[in-house]
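User: tokens in, sequence out, please.
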């Protein structure tokens, strides 16, 4: 099967979307946004031996590739509209592996109403994938947007996560899209947990110009406290609410926002170092 055959196969699997005026098969896709929407754009890379093992099932790799970017859309309170997928694989992987990859990716795409609008195929020495997702949120009054952001947390706000932390890296990611929508107009700040609670909470506090006090950490079965704090790949939502605002069901309060040095986080009376996953750190700290 050559590249044209592969593109035809992917186009057939992808189907159509009402928002795509033109999809796979031309030089560019044509997307017509709905009235009174702000568009969200994100991209995430998925690299063999960095983000997944080489023996991982192709369908699971495809699901994970899209899920990572959808988690970013969820963190902004958005609803996905379409995705672009660039995939490079070694020649020995072949059409069967590529077909299974897209089966996993498109299964999640259909469940989340994310149209596959196009992308690129190439050969490489190892598997590399980049997924760009466009999402949307309603516009606010004037020039404002209903998108959730990292910079709105204020002292007194309460801090929550959407699930237990420290889960296995190879488990299936479930983007918290429905929760993100429910948090629109309520959460004062929000982000997804991809690099570890200690690092991502530090980032949220830096953007908001505040500090945080952690009271507890919900730990996944089989995980350690260290992994729950610093391990990454949880893809839960970390968010803040004003006092008195009832938290959505299934979420857990883990602390509060306090005055202090921007980005400072305390846990069990001690400063918590931002030790989550960092691609460019020479060695773990």
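Assistant: Sequence out:
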């Amino acid at each position: 099967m050559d590249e044209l055959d592969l593109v035809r196969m992917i186009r057939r699997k992808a189907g159509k979307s009402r928002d795509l005026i033109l999809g796979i098969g031309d030089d560019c896709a044509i997307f017509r946004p709905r009235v009174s929407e702000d568009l969200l754009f994100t991209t995430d890379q998925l690299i063999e031996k960095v983000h997944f093992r080489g023996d991982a099932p192709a369908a699971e790799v495809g699901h994970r590739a899209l899920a990572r970017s959808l988690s970013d859309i969820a963190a902004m309170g958005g609803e996905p509209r379409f995705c672009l997928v660039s995939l490079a694989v070694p020649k020995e992987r072949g059409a069967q592996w590529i077909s299974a990859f897209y089966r996993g990716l498109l299964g999640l795409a259909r469940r989340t109403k994310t149209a596959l609008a196009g992308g690129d195929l190439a050969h490489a020495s190892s598997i590399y994938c980049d997924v760009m997702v466009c999402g949307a949120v309603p516009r606010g009054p004037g020039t404002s947007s209903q998108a959730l952001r990292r910079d709105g947390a204020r002292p007194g706000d309460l801090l929550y996560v959407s699930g237990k932390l420290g889960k296995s890296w190879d488990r299936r990611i479930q983007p918290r899209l429905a929760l993100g929508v429910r948090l629109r107009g309520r959460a004062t700040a929000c982000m997804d947990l991809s690099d570890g609670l200690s690092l991502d909470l530090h980032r949220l506090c830096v953007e908001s110009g505040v500090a945080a006090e952690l009271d507890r950490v919900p730990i996944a079965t089989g995980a350690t406290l260290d992994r729950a704090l610093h391990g990454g790949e949880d893809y839960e939502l970390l968010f803040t609410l004003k006092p008195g605002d009832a938290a959505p069901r299934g979420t857990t309060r883990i602390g509060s926002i306090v005055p202090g040095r921007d980005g400072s986080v305390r846990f069990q009376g001690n400063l918590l170092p931002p030790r989550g996953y960092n691609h460019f750190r020479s060695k773990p700290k």
